[in-house]
Write a structure and sequence with these properties.
There is one protein chain. By secondary structure, the protein is α/β, with parallel strands linked by helices. It has one domain. It contains 6 helices and 5 strands; from the N terminus they run ββαααβαβαβα. It has a 3-stranded parallel β-sheet, with helices on both faces. Strands 2-3 form a two-stranded antiparallel ribbon. Strand 4, helix 5 and strand 5 form a beta-alpha-beta unit. Helix 1 packs across helix 2. The longest helix is centred in the middle third of the chain and has 21 residues. The chain is globular and about 45 Å long. The mean pLDDT is 93.
Length: 141
């Protein structure tokens, strides 16, 4: 049986521009160019959202609040999906499709509801900060 697990942002959801706008909106960067540099720098390094992170509980709480603010802005702004890729995913004959993300449920769920991906799981930042933990949860289920 085929099991597929996808990230959301940048894989299914075309959210880069909206996230850059959100970064400026919440004051993490002064302008779009700076937000793009910050975003590219973030994805080129090891994520702090791993099982072996070094964040304190307070820092992790602040990360959640930041991602919540970013996700809410992106959700309210609206964004597209990578429609051709989504179409390919929809055609794969397996019931075991899942999505993991550092984004928030309220941003992901409405977008996925407009597809025929029908994932068994959509695990976001609220479920756990670590994608490793999310993937293990999916595999155990």
């Amino acid at each position: 049986m085929l099991n597929l697990i996808f990230d959301f942002d940048g894989v299914i959801g075309d959210t880069f521009e909206e996230f850059c706008e959100a970064i400026v909106h919440i004051g993490m960067a002064p302008d779009i160019d700076s937000a793009q540099v910050l975003s590219r720098d973030y994805v080129s390094k090891k994520s702090p959202h791993t099982r072996d992170h070094t964040l304190t509980n307070d820092e992790l709480g602040k990360e959640y609040e930041t991602y919540k603010a970013l996700g809410l802005y992106v959700s309210e702004k609206g964004f597209g999906l990578f429609d051709n890729f989504v179409s390919e995913i929809e055609q794969v004959n397996t019931e075991n499709k899942a999505i993991v993300s550092s984004n928030i449920q309220s941003c992901i769920l409405p977008a996925i509801s407009n597809t025929r991906i029908n994932p068994t799981h959509i695990l976001a930042f609220e479920n756990h900060h670590s994608k490793e933990e999310k993937i293990e949860t999916i595999c155990q289920d």
